[in-house]
Amino acid sequence: MSSEKRIFFIDGHAMVYRAHYAFINRPLMNSKGQNVSAISGFVRSVWDLIIHQKPSHIGVIFDPKGGTFRSELYEEYKAQRDAQPEDITLALPYIIRIMEGMRIPVEIIPNFEADDVIGTLAKKAEKEGFQVFMVTPDKDYAQLVSENIFQYKPARFGNDIEILGVEDILKKWEIKRIDQVIDILGLMGDSVDNIPGLPGVGPKTAVKLIDEFDNIENVLNNADKMKGKLQETIQTKGDLAILSKTLATIHLDAPVEFNHEHYLIEQFDKEALLEVFKELEFKTLANNILSYNFDKGKLPSTTPQPKVNNKNPEESYQTSLFDEQPSEATESFIQELSNATADITNTHHDYRLVSTDQDWKEFIEEMTHHAYFCFDTETTGLDPITAELVGISVSHKAHYAWYIPVPDNQTQAQTIVDKLKPFWLDETKDKIGQNLKYDISVLKKYDVEVKGRLYDTMLIHYLVEPDLRHGMDYMSETYLKYKPVAIENLIGTKKADQLSMKDVPLEDIKEYAAEDADITYQLYQYLMPELESINATKLYETLESKLIYVLADMEMAGVNIDAQYLNKYSVELGQRIDILEEKIYQQAGHTFNISSPKQVGDLLFGTMNIPYRWAKTKQGAFSTDEAKLSELALEHTFVQDILDHRSLSKLKSTYVDALPKMINPITQRIHSSFNQALASTGRLSSNNPNLQNIPVRTREGREIRKAFIPRNSDYILLSCDYSQIELRLIAELSKDANMVDAFKKGLDIHTATAAKVYNVPIDEVTPDQRRNAKTVNFSIIYGAGSLNLSRQLGIKRVEAKEIIDQYFLQFSGLKAYMDGIVHEAQEKGYVTTLMGRRRYLRDINSRNSLARSGAERIAVNSPIQGTAADMIKLAMIEIHREFKKLNLSTKMIMQVHDELVFDVKKDELDQVKAIVEDKMKNAIPGLVVPIEVSSGIGENWLEAH
């Protein structure tokens, strides 16, 4: 495709949405808290296209605001789509500004969608001898492909770009002619655009019909040749197919002219780009784009172009765009960029190696005179139980650090550690680090019990910006404008070929390790004032920092697993899965991949013709998630068999077969890692294994808990669980008189709620009324409206609304609290727990009603969940302190939701149970609502719980 005339038309909205959702779980935020994911992703895609595809011409086309002629033709067209995300709405003006700065034309034609405008322009450009590339992931554009018009599908999720020509489309769609794309679309419809299609006709049936009858009109004219349900559908719903074909057809008569000079690659407006890049803090993009030199209509090049001094206008037409001297503003910003992307090669630093006796003398003298120090360990791996020390770095001022190498020899290594031990044991010295739990755990192997106050930059940042990333590299680049050395530079990127840190040359590891300690210390200096500014210093010092010691001990203690029981259970589950598999195949009439959502969807809604009443996936496939299949299972036992097969297969692979493989060969125990800086609510999570996700709702899931056992016959498991903690806390926070009174009197809260809502004496509440009240109680906490409640209770929406109205009438204090907390969130932009933990709500004042209502639900729920999280953390700290004080053998081994699990020495059971219940109940003193804890013991976790 080496044409000199290559024009690329970009489907603006499609590419913006693609960029936005690519970062939906980890949005790109600048220092102002602005989500720049869509802007960055879109601009990078355009720039990547310019660099690698060498367009001579380019343009961006956006959809217009409001409806188009298709909406007038069919009112339901795109009617089901969610409102445009607020972040995209805010991003679009910036994107248009950047396109204008890059001198890329932006087209928005009233009443016509981007695909109509692109289709019109593409056909006109083709007539003028251009190769045309339509940049979009949208499948509808396939109908426009011709000998010189291609669909350019950008790379995504590690896949390469796709450039689809005529043969590619014919093969992919299984058709004979390009125009049959429209017939396929008309038959199968499009859930994304709410194009109905023929009910019950999916991709396979559509292809089969068009292959046999050539087009939709012929399909409808030959309805008498069809059989069964399909014949009935065509005869009664054929008009939907014609309508759908009309809606899916891209119009080629949009009111737009094609002037090739208008779309020619031109010199950028550098000053305009500088302004917007500085505003958005796009350092890397600015550096890349503004550093390139390229000729008008030609590919940018990374090498400076020579100046061309030629008086002939035609000969000077393609001289370098950047051959003039840069303006002062450009030079200033490039210098700013240079400073912003500082690294170890261009930043003054004093990193010293401790190797001689004189080095040790100077180092120890410095350490003695400082009340704090920042340290970091370099090790052979990420598992603190098996990792060995390679070196230790220490810093106590910016741009300055020491590195102490640790030899392989265990005796020599211990000698090195022992020289540093007094500083770690000194409680008067504050210890600073990044993810200190890991370093503390590693040092335990070397007989070092770190003491004193801990300042962990990861956790400090977690309190300051709970929704952002907390890695050192990210924080350094964001706040210090400094790019640290990547570990991959030392050990490589591919796991199979990665070096151990032991194999890295000493000078390299010294610079890398010392930089870690130095940067962490600088982050500490930057973040502590930020922590103070949000009044969270006390929260950090009394809770998060002290919890580090607790979690380190919990992880090192680990939990005993009955691998023999799990192996036996695996065989049992395998047999049940095999029986289900055979049963499913018999009912289906053939074998298929039961684990494939697509194959299950094609079977149920294609082959078996079960009516499909939901939106399809973005790829046009049938959705077969658990919620949808559970609805169908009420009518079709075959579907329940598929659900059971899925459930048992996941249980077996994720837990039953996986847990024995996680047993540490040294300790013969499982050591889950507890994540302190992950959940925005403040709750702990865990991985390897994820204890929070071990199923408890099914009998088969609960059986897994039998595998968690005491360390030996002298021990027993104790489980202590907060009782209805979230309901008690919302009563505490709202001070609702009726709810507080019920808890104070020790009443069953769900029965008491039912008595109020249904206006009956408490001793006359029926089981159904209590069950409904329980659902209402928890639904209110999570912000469920009448629609969700009606679904949960299986009642009409009007009845659900009456229940909610009556609920708030009886618990008016609760309603006032919820309204008040939402108002507070709207005023402040965040909510707080009783301990002062903040949860920021970026969408609380959004114009998008869906985003805003979601933020309002979080505003109500976060203080409850967050306070529950703070409460159990405080209890853990106090329990841990008491165990240490009394020198007990009992270990706290797990924290799951509102539950703590202990491996208890049997002769300590009564003492431990009393300590735990007391500390859990009184974790936050002075509460009006009594806190209750339920406890149980057993030879395994299931028995204890």
Notes on the protein architecture:
The chain is an alpha/beta fold. The chain folds into 5 domains: 6-260, Rossmann fold, CATH 3.40.50.1010; 267-340, no CATH class; 350-533, Nucleotidyltransferase, domain 5 (2-Layer Sandwich), CATH 3.30.420; 578-676 and 693-709, Taq DNA Polymerase, Chain T, domain 4 (Up-down Bundle); 727-849, 5' to 3' exonuclease, C-terminal subdomain (DNA polymerase, domain 1). It is 50% helix and 12% strand. It has 37 helices and 24 strands. The chain has a 6-stranded mixed sheet. The protein has a 6-stranded mixed sheet with strand order 9-12-11-10-13-14, with helices on both faces. Helix 1 (12-22) crosses helix 2 (37-53), helix 7 (180-188) crosses helix 8 and helix 31 runs antiparallel to helix 32 (786-793). The protein is globular.
- Which strand order do you get reading across the main beta sheet? 3-2-1-4-5-6
Q: Give the strand content.
A: 5-15%
Unreliable segments of 5+ consecutive residues: 296-327
CATH architecture of the largest domain: 3-Layer(aba) Sandwich
The CATH topology of the largest domain is given as Rossmann fold
Overall body shape: globular
Query: Which range best describes the helical content: under 10%, 10-25%, 25-40%, 40-55%, 55-70% or over 70%?
Result: 40-55%
What's the helix count? Answer: 37
Roughly how many Å is the radius of gyration? 33 Å
Q: Could you report the average pLDDT, rounded to the nearest whole number?
A: 88
- The domain count comes to 5
Total beta-strand segments: 24
Report the span from N to C terminus.
Answer: 67 Å
Broad structural category:
alpha/beta
Largest sheet: 6 strands, mixed
CATH class of the largest domain: Alpha Beta
The CATH superfamily label of the largest domain reads: 5'-nuclease
